Amino acid sequence: MDALIPRPRREVAPGAVHVPGWLSPAGQRELVTACRAWAMGPVPMRHTRLPRGGVMSVRTLGVGWHWRPYAYERTAGDVNGARVPEFPDWLGDLGRRAVTAAYRDPAAGAAYRPDTALVNLYQDGATMGMHQDKDEKSAAPVVSLSIGDTCVFRFGNTATRGKPYTDVELESGDLFVFGGPSRFAFHGVPKVRPGTGEPATGLTSGRLNVTLRVTGLE
Ligand code: MD3
Ligand code: FE
Q: In CA terms, which of 52, 139, 174, 200 is 20 to 30 Å from 98?
């Protein structure tokens, strides 16, 4: 929603910065269009199967690298064996602008070289349990962009998946950057609020989250 109630930039924890409304409506539409194209294949968006028999309620696709539990690959070995799309230059540029804006540090932004995007689609009550992202061999920041329905994002601590944690509402266009001491914190999405998104984004229902990462792999 447009800021009837202002939501200022906020450092939620050291290295974890929330920048509400950072991505313009046009930027959101462009990202939705790109995600639709990636979802057409060669690797479809799918519910990831977990090694212990579970299936994630979120649907995911990878750009640059494919993530499977618990490794990155160039080909989607747990889907159809196809090679993932190339990570485009414009997405790296978006990541550098995002890090610059969140940290107010152009040098940190300029040095950022993401090589993968994980796209998560939340529909029909999908949620994500508390977890750490530690399959990357780099401690570089993760950039998160939210589009569509508002969610409750739960940002925890590095020691346990339980308390203490902070709940933050992420709305369409919000940027969140997780670096430094926050990079390996537990986090999750316990709730999405249906019907809170704007059709102008090109997403008529659900929530899309794009995270940019540095895998540290060759
Ligand atoms: C904090 N995605 O894809 S984005 C994920 O909204 C993931 O779809 C959630 O957790 C989503 O792994 C949360 C925010 C996020 C992403 C990566 C992080 C927070 C993070 C990595 C380290 C610390
Ligand atoms: Fe995560």
A: 200
